[in-house]
Amino acid sequence: MHDRMKAAFESCRLCPRACGVDRTRVGAGGRAGVCGEGDRMRVAWVGPHFGEEPPITGENGSGTVFFTGCPLRCVFCQNYQISHEGLGGVVSVEELVERIVRMVEEEHVHNVNFVTPDPFFPWVFQVVERLREKGYDLPVVLNLSGYQSVEMLRLAEGVADIFLPDYKYSDSRLAARYASCPDYPGVALDAIGEMVRQKGFLDVFETGESLAGRGVLVRHLILPGHVENSLDALSALFVELGPDLPVSLMSQYRPRTDRLPGSLTRPLAREEFDRVYAHVEELGFRHLFVQFPSEGGEEEAPFVPDFREARPFRGGPNG
Ligand code: SF4
Q1: Which atom of ligand 1 is nearest to the CA of 119?
Q2: Which residue puts its alpha carbon closest to atom 6 of ligand 1?
């Protein structure tokens, strides 16, 4: 590990939690930060994913790399096994490059999609550099919680082609309650603004191509019992970034543990989705992706993964 990389992990400020912990000592008696990760890259799954929005998924799937750990750690996380339970294994830069190359060659995925890469940014930047040196210049997607610092995003500017950030909370009390993160609403809006400054909006609406090569698409997961949070989040995005911001509205929420509070113990109700959908239409976003609630209940919720399986996602050609 070269010196700058070592310094990034010795007093970690890779995300706005700015824990300042020495991640090189995690596992050797040292304290971990909020993400729980040491200085070695850990990955839960690498493979084609067919549950992203159509310009990201295409015919052959998005080439996802799911990292272990998360700085936000929302209590309801849909990827609970990897964000909270630490499912995943250590990989080196070369090993991960090899796995990605194999996926690209065998599955013909349309992009390389790093999911929650921020605790491992220094390694991920090296992975992308090695892929490009080897001639793999597929679009690089950074799939993020929205809780990133502008400073770190500037370091990622030459690495990312596409940003897929969430905008989860407009209500700081909710962000405090579910993620111990009361500054999320403002930090994430600044982060998304920086992403748009760098890449613009998802390019498919200008190019007319079916697959995205560059730009930003913001996702919002509607939480059961928290319609007001969604209405305000979508209004804030509209006011900040205007009607051309591509937005993906998601209704897939499912409880992932039995330790959840109040309304989070149930799926989203149809009436809740309808209220949010009506609002988003009324605001006048021009480029919307909408995941309508499935009528079939739990059995038909294809996007809630089980990372203990070789193919964690049901649905799609590999489901
Ligand atoms: S990446 Fe992890 S250790 Fe570093 S600041 Fe964020 S939560 Fe803390």
Answers
A1: 1
A2: 15
Amino acid sitting at position 165: P
Quote the pTM value: 0.93
Measured in Å, residue 117 CA sits from the centre of ligand 1 at: 11
Q: CA-to-CA distance for 46 and 31, rounded, in angstroms?
A: 28
Whose C-alpha lies nearest to ligand 1, atom 2?
35
Q: pLDDT tens digit string along 208-261?
A: 999 999 999 999 999 999 999 999 999 999 999 999 999 999 998 988 888 888
All structural domains of the chain: 42-300 (3.20.20.70)
Pairing of the two strands 62-67 and 112-115: parallel
For ligand 1, residues with CB inside 6 Å are 12-15, 17-19, 21, 23, 33-35, 37, 71, 119
The CA distance from 95 to 78, in Å, is 27
Identify the residue with better confidence: 284 or 77: 284
- Ligand 1 atom having least distance to the Cα of 13: 5
